[in-house]
Amino acid sequence: VQLQASGGGLVQPGGSLRLSCAATGRTDSSYALGWFRQAPGKAREFIARIRWRDGSTDYADSVKGRFTISRGNARNTVYLQMNGLKPEDTAVYYCASQPGRLMSYDYWGQGTQVTVSS
User: Which residues have CB under 8 Å from 97's CB, separation 6+?
Assistant: First the structure.
């Protein structure tokens, strides 16, 4: 599975961005696609996950109610709609593929920078 993340940029506090993750290759071997982020000097943080089969989702408490993960009609694109952005949301955002329910994420996209600043 190859993943390409895009959509990052500079936005003012309170603004919105939509990230996209395009998946190619053996996407039928993927159980779910997740979004993570990593800020400078901090550990990588789980943000959200969507399961390909039924579209069910999970969110980190830090983004619940502000971010929405969704999938395209084909099994190859996942979106992360980010509303109410805060300076602490500034990070590099990565998408990753999870091969099974309790398995580690095995394929990662290259990351896209999100900067929230006035």
Answer: 1, 3, 23, 27, 30, 32, 33, 34, 105, 106, 107, 108
What are the two backbone dihedrals, phi and then psi, of residue 57, each rounded to the nearest 5 degrees?
Answer: -130, 160
Residue 59 CA to residue 32 CA, distance in Å, equals 13
Q: How far, rounded to the nearest angstrom, does the alpha carbon of residue 84 sit from its chain's CA centroid?
A: 16
Residues in the chain, overall count: 118
Instruction: Answer yes or no: are the C-beta atoms of 59 and 69 closer than 8 Å.
Output: yes
Residue pLDDT, tens place only, 1-43:
899 999 999 999 999 999 999 998 877 778 999 999 999 999 9
Q: How far, in Å, CA of 106 to CA of 10, rounded?
A: 29
